[in-house]
Amino acid sequence: MTASELAPIAAAPVLQPLTATSDGAYLPATPATTTWGRLPCADDAPALSVEPGAAVVVDTVSHEGILEDQGRDPIAFFGAHGVAPRDVLLDAIAVAADGHHDRTGGPHVVTGPIEVRGAQPGDLLAVRVDALVPRVPYGVVSSRHGKGLLPGSFPVDGPLTSIFCRVNDLELGLDAARGTLPLQPGDPDRPVRFPLAPFLGVMGVATPGPRRHSTPPGLHGGNIDIRLLVAGTTLYLPVQVPGAGLYVGDPHFAQGNGEIALTALEAPLRATLTVDVVPAAEAAARYGAVTGPFVRTAEFLVPTGLDEDLDVAVQKCGRNAVELLGAVYGMAPELAYAYLSAATDFEISQVVDIVKGSHARIRLADFAAVDRIEVPR
């Protein structure tokens, strides 16, 4: 698509970096407060330090539009698609110009780490997603480097296909906004329109030792890519190092389970998060011996399973689901196993990382009559 086909690009406001917030708990995305390609570890100094229970506003930038194979020049990249220079994020420009990209790791830019004072290994870090606000009215879906679900088929022509996606009606709110793609290149008059559901693909805590790990997911979180993590949900992460070292990134406007082309609709978000600590003894009493991240939404309890082998990832998810049902509701393992088979969807989070992801959606409403432990929000 050409610039003339897309202009004017936006009616929605562009959210450039803030100078401050009312309470000062704001973490911008700068070359100094982000890591690019790898995840924070114990040796990384906190970019921000907060008390448990604090609300934090965090700006994220997308790797799409700033990567080397896209020219590492977001003004030029987005300008070719009709975006005026004033509508390109200043922090994306700064990270592209001055950020260090460890290309042995991955593409993602993450903001952090955030120290949560008093958090210790064995605790759970509870990260409530209060709000996720799109910062621009456009994004990108890319397939590259022979990766994705169908690496032998896509990209069709060359090592990279980056599909620019404009977002319509964002100024009217997320319910009205739609991502749009044409049926054929150069045919903007017949768009495919799909709803937005913003979430952060990377949410995690720092790992022990001096080595920064690559972005594929693990017990620490990382690139978990669970699209259920929209505003109003809570992610529980096993703390690995003192202070936790929370980081977030890989912002999405929308994603299908599986994320088969390698990326989904990648675009920057401003996140408001409330961070709290569940002490180790309390965590064990509430949730048992669950390994790895898990999620609580308004409708579901969501265990995860992570492994390079997708079959093993689903098996791990199943074991964690049985463990959660026993710890939270006192359900016998055989009965939990039967219930999960009859009533719970096991889904593929993503298949494009080295480590594959699965998650299950356990309906909270099914246990409304059970007089057991209340699952905290």
Outline the structure in words.
- Helix 4 (280-287) crosses helix 5 and helix 5 packs across helix 6.
- It contains 6 helices and 20 strands.
- It has 2 domains: 3-280, Sandwich (Jelly Rolls), CATH 2.60.120; 288-367, Endonuclease I-creI, CATH 3.10.28.
- Strand 19 and strand 20 (356-363) form a beta hairpin.
- Strands 1-4-16-6-13-17-18-20-19 form a 9-stranded mixed sheet. Strands 2, 3, 5, 11, 12, 14 and 15 form a 7-stranded mixed sheet that branches.
- 15% of the residues lie in helices and 32% in strands.
- It has 377 residues and is of the alpha+beta class.
- It holds the Pfam family FmdA_AmdA.
- It comes from Pseudonocardia halophobica.
- This is Formamidase.
- GO terms for molecular function: hydrolase activity, acting on carbon-nitrogen (but not peptide) bonds, in linear amides.
